[in-house]
Write a structure and sequence with these properties.
The structure is a homotetramer of 334-residue chains. Chain A has 334 residues and is α/β, with parallel strands linked by helices. Chain A contains 13 helices and 15 strands. A 7-stranded mixed sheet of chain A has the order 12-11-7-10-9-8-15. In chain A, helix 1 packs across helix 12, helix 5 packs antiparallel against helix 13 and helix 9 crosses helix 13. Chain A is globular and about 60 Å long. The two termini of chain A are 36 Å apart. At the A-C interface, strand 7, strand 8, strand 9 and strand 10 of A face strand 7, strand 8, strand 9 and strand 10 of C. Strand 14 of chain C pairs antiparallel with strand 14 of chain D, so a sheet runs across the interface.
């Protein structure tokens, strides 16, 4: 247990890195943000506004004196390198997902983390969203009984740039990965098998880039529960994030956030608010809560709530889903 | 207690008379619709389709052999005459509201009914609506505790014809009268005082006809509860009928009916259904239920659930509200 | 086109037969209910109350003078026999679903119907429910654009008796069959393939009877849309019937019916109504509307809105789903 | 226009002072929190944690070098003194409501502020709540047309301590004051008259302290609109804050916040979340938004969005409501 503030650095000051930077500086009790690194001038300039030590390289960052922990927010293909380097330097780690797109590389990384005896938390932020957290708590408290059917709807407001898609691993690894983790989280056990159906119904360029834009996955879990996930890269009405758990004692569901709760009735009918922005707005408080949970766990000497194994299992589900689409059959999850 | 079917006649086959006619013929266990009367050819032709004895005058109707009860659906200014005549002939009575717009005439009529020892039920249909009935049951069961604040919103989709307004007694007597009864019903006791605020904000012709189109009434009840009623003769979004009871243990409310329960999300936002028609559609099942309740009570030898006194008390509230607007002060309810 | 009333008989006066009987007698303009048949004394006694000609056998029923049409409400294993006999006698037909559990038998029956040049409407009542009809109209009007994902949730309040399950063809044929039809109806085209996942998670006796109680089906349609259906034989909170269509221009959904629309807020939290009964209550108006649609189409010389082919296609989906579970792979729909 | 950061001090570090302190330090672009004052050791200790100059007296605070503005968060009976002192020292002012409970004293204070040519913003935080702001925007955009009926429900979860009530001016001045301001804000014009009904239905000790706990106010506005406010000091189900504007083109309403958006269906029925905490939680973002609006207006050289006159007018409504209850009649608002 660490009784003094946890001295933490942020590696990578892109969009998500700045969110963690801001939360660590202002909203995470027990954390002291002491350093940040970014290879780009713009990223460093951001950090320098706030009197934080600033470095060009991740290596310099982890050499910052008395650093306890690092938040790895670098590009995905650097995650494993940075985690390994920081773990060997004895730093506790928060890492944005995914750790890597290769199972071998993830396993190798987790082995280093284990040997270094540091903690590693993966950024499955959705687990820390107040709505999903409430749903999980209703499952844990037994309000819905034994879960039989888990339903997750996850639809983005618009497709990402094609460049992103080409390197993201595709829809299952850049988008459904969150649902795979959430399905496991809500089921409370591991997956046995996945059947996935994927189509390219939106822009043909997505298909030409080797990806799909519309998908349905059916997952069977060790406890007999079945999860159904439906995804689309384009919900023109906004970022649609819903979930439901149906079980022997009832059904619990969570709806979307909206910017306000108005209703308007006119001669044209009943109208209501649009949905809440995209992930940065929808999960703003979840990003904060996950970082609070990371710092609290590391300081308290407790296990972090989402570990490297969770990332590995979500990755394996994603790869099995890809294989299922390719081979047009249900696929066992290793 | 009457063990054979209750032989009933309908006096007046206008819009509401035909509704009661149809319900009595098809949907009221224990009732046998045997006769109907209407001074107009069209009304009689309606009844003749269904092999029911048909008369021109109300007097002939109540002379129909072995008639047990009559539903008085004639024009308002005939209600008292018809009730008196039928009561003297020993018939049980269902009468559309209002019995009359004059307190003296109502009291005189009720005296005849009492002397004749027949039952008289007033058509405050809203008490039999499934939503209002549920709200009342939550009050009676104690779910909201002692009622402190009762709120009623009652807004018509469009103003009635000016001709109607000129003879209806005005908004308080043709429209709010239902809310006065409902406020008493939900409060579970009598009113002490009313303060009313009325304006002519819509068509100036309504004001020229001596009426208002927008009103707010505040009623204090014997048990300390306060009711607030808001009315408008024109809600462009449809017939708006809501209620709420707030008390020491909680708050119960009922919302509007809609033709279906869809939600539509598009780039333009969230949309939902319009409200359910006007009173004929909104309270279709309530008209049925009130007639079932009338027949059941008369057959079972039990007191009908809404008596002549209820009509008198709603009328007195209406007249006090009129006086309150005129004298610009709270007025005691006699 | 038939300008006089459509003279119709009801064959079979069990639970559903009596519903059609009552609707035909009271709520279907243009229909004249003239006869009914039931092998059981109780069934016939029901019909005799209403001065309708009553027969013991279906053969006698279709020999009733000047009969135009028959509603076949006999036990499932008699459906094909009765349809064939009535078609050969030149009667138009409304038949409860399913026509038969064997594809061959259904095709044979449809051939007879075709040859006899009579109309045959199948009782997929859900299409006539006001909520599902609204959803379909939003799809047809283009409000959601091209459909990409269709979601149907259909959960019964409690499992049927084991005896029923043993002869019903199982969950896919007695329960999901409605969802298969609705998925086709909403997709607006035919299915290509189904992948089904079924489990026995409730009473083991259901499994011993050879059936499942929990299922998820994924269907791919000719237009690229994917439908996901989730079923359970036991939703302890009531009959759960929801649907959603997601497309290029938006998403439309329909929620459950409730007996009323109250909300209750107490120190214990927010509470609302239970769901509406079981199918007899939930779809009471749909049963009425389908019979109205049948009579209107036959009288108007128009094609009935749900034909024998629709039944055949739902059956084929059900059989493919059974095969999918058995062979643990997606199965083409013939 | 001030192009450098607005240097601001906080006077008073009680509960609400600390909220403004935190917002100014972390969430208000353009503000530089430079000093704070509190007569109590505990208040000062709070500020000292954050390297902010700390004083014992308000006089010392406003003498802090180069101070541009002050947020007055002292006890109510000090508000006028502090505003006058700071205005004379040329500081722009944000002041918690009410400025004072005496009309004379408020007018005197506003005269000083005017003479000093500084800006004064009153803390009617509710105007900055996202829900109320949306409602106002729907009125301003004409979505509901000309407003006819405005409804505000405002109920506290539990009564304040009796000591508070004795010095607060009573329910109309400590609680309804927010609704008076909101009614004016939504009506978009001034009030002509108020009729108020107040009762002591909860703890008799509240009545003995000279106050009421349940109230209904009816306000008439210059534009013909009528507002109805209902208040209770104790809604056992939580802090209930709702509003509705009904007009010639429609009706807009806003509902309560909840900590999450779950629904739970069990055999016991449908359940949902409790309401969001009390004002500190419910209006946390509104406190932030009002301070942002204050700093933005002062920096931009624009008029602050809620001025001293708004406070005076709400106070006059409160005093008229008190008189209305006492004299049992509608009272003109001076």
């Amino acid at each position: 247990m660490i009784t003094k503030p946890l001295r933490i650095g942020v590696g990578g000051l892109g969009r998500i890195g700045r969110i963690h930077f801001d939360n660590l500086r202002n909203h995470v009790p027990g954390a002291e943000l002491v350093a940040a690194a970014d290879p780009f001038e713009g990223g460093r300039a951001f950090a320098e506004q706030f009197s934080v030590a600033t470095y060009e390289s991740f290596e310099e960052l982890i050499a910052h004196p008395d650093l306890d922990a690092v938040a790895v927010c670098s590009p995905t293909d650097e995650h494993a390198n940075h985690v390994i380097a920081a773990a060997r330097a004895g730093k506790h780690l928060f890492c944005e997902k995914p750790l890597d797109l290769s199972v071998d590389r993830v396993e190798e990384t987790l082995a280093v983390v284990k040997e270094a005896d540091v903690q590693l938390m993966l950024g499955f932020n959705r687990r820390f969203d107040r709505h999903f957290a409430k749903l999980k708590s209703l499952v844990v408290s037994g309000s819905v009984g034994e879960p039989h059917i888990i339903k997750l709807t996850s639809r983005d407001p618009a497709p990402p740039p094609l460049e992103f898609i080409k390197h993201s691993g595709g829809l299952f690894l850049d988008m459904t990965i969150h649902d795979f983790d959430m399905a496991r989280h809500l089921a409370g056990c591991d997956a046995l098998e996945v059947y996935a159906q994927g189509s390219n119904l939106l822009d043909p360029a997505i298909g030409e880039a080797g990806d799909i834009d519309t998908a349905v996955c059916v997952i069977t879990f060790e406890n007999g529960a079945t999860a159904v996930i439906d995804n689309s890269r384009q919900a023109v009405y906004g970022y649609d994030q819903r979930a439901e758990v149906f079980g022997t004692k009832g059904m619990a569901s969570i709806g979307n956030e909206t910017p306000d709760r108005h209703e308007l009735f006119t001669a044209a009918g009943q109208q209501g608010p649009l949905l809440e922005g995209f992930f940065l707005e929808r999960y703003a408080l979840a990003y904060r809560a996950e970082m609070q949970a990371f710092v609290k766990a590391v300081q308290g000497g407790e296990t972090v709530p989402v570990g490297g194994e969770d990332g590995l299992k979500a990755l394996k589900l994603g790869l099995a889903a890809l294989q299922s689409v390719k081979e047009h059959r249900p696929v066992s999850v290793g």
